[in-house]
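Re: Re: ligand-bound prediction request (bumping)

Still looking for help on this. To restate: I need the protein modeled with iron/sulfur cluster bound, output as structure tokens. Inputs repeated here so nobody has to scroll up.
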Amino acid sequence: MPPAHPFDDDKLKEECGVFGVVGVANAASVVALGLHALQHRGQEAGGIVTHDPEQGFNSARRFGLVRDNFTDEDTLATVPGPIGIGHVRYSTAGSKGATQIRDVQPFFGEFSMGGAAIAHNGNITNAMALRRELIERGSIFQSSSDSECIIHLMARSMGRSIPDRMEEALRKVEGAFSVVAMTRTKLIGCRDPLGVRPLVLGQLGDGWVLASETCALDIINAKFIREIEPGEMVVITEKGVESNHPFRPAKSRFCIFEHVYFSRPDSILGGRSVYETRENIGRELAKENPVDADLVCPVPDSGTPAAIGYSLQSGIPYAMGIIRNQYMGRTFIEPTESIRNMGVRLKLNVNRALIEGKRVILVDDSVVRGTTSRKIKDMILDAGAAEVHFRIASPPTAWPCFYGVDTPQREKLLAATMSEDEMRDHLGVDSLKFISLNGLYRAVGEAKGRDASAPKYCDACFSGEYPVKPADMLEQGFEMKTAAE
Ligand code: SF4
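Reply:
Sorry for the wait, this slipped through. Here it is.
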């Protein structure tokens, strides 16, 4: 599958997608389809664990895309059974660029009451401290992943059942987690108390499904039942769903960037269509930041719904001024230096006949380092545009994410070191405007904008206000926002 955005190196990246199913004839095939629908959440590697009453637990882990690894009958035959979970990953903290197959989830642990496998989306913000303590007490880690802490914490628990042990383990974990786990007969799902990362419940015939997003239910024709609530743990057997709330109650802080970029536009989040929210963002952006121009063009593909919204609101015609090569995936081999130097032109082409002589509004979802925004501006000007105006469907990304999204260090984020005007000059465009944080909240349904005393979402990468203290990062010298900033 091609990446969601042609400039992967200048985008924030969701680090994982999780999926699980119980009570179906061939769980591995269903898990593979679900993971394929979640591929935008991680393209580096994937894994499936299943349990079969005769053959016990089995697993398959591979680097690369689901479609290249988990579609042939021989591979799927190695993971038989009516219950299974799976995971796709980008890469988790601590292992970027050096991922080993042992870092690929789901992780498996054998306990006195039987085995359990676990797949985690999110990031544990106290993983370093937990890992240190666990190692001192004798745990032997197999991977560099923070998620493995959960298995070791479960091993140390005195809980009498695996769900009890998982509950106890997750109470010690800080940060963001949407977890899908399984025993021989139970499928378990759990979201952290703030519900930072998504997790939904679906029904497939007599079976049950857990998935990061509703688009993974659609692909298998499962019925969407509901979202797992923040702080909720569900234990699912063929008999049905049992729900608990094992954590201290907290106000939900779902990741607002899921609405802007991470989730697929055909998913439903918090009862809202992601596509419609993105169109609303474009409308808000047009209300807040109008400009005289001839065309509104998206930076494909992620800027498209917001560009449509901007066009509808402003009355300026929408046009596909930039065309993406659909077949330009990550696996393209760039054989020579001269071809490599063509850079973005391999992936995108300007629709010269539309652009020439026009004042163009380019709508993109975010500016991270700004390197690709500059290249796009060059391409548009080379094609003869009279003016280039950037409109960005998120506020300036000035702070790193520590909750399961890959972000550059703070000093590499353009908005961390420059004002909006400085960024405009740096990018060399006629104007640059971002949606405000209040505008973004309005677009996701908060009519009054952001309530500064009790924000409804996590928006730390824009506001610098972290809902969970990033303990490990503070230990490494990260400096939180000061009162003066
Ligand atoms: S910091 Fe940003 S990307 Fe990370 S969870 Fe919060 S809103 Fe989402």
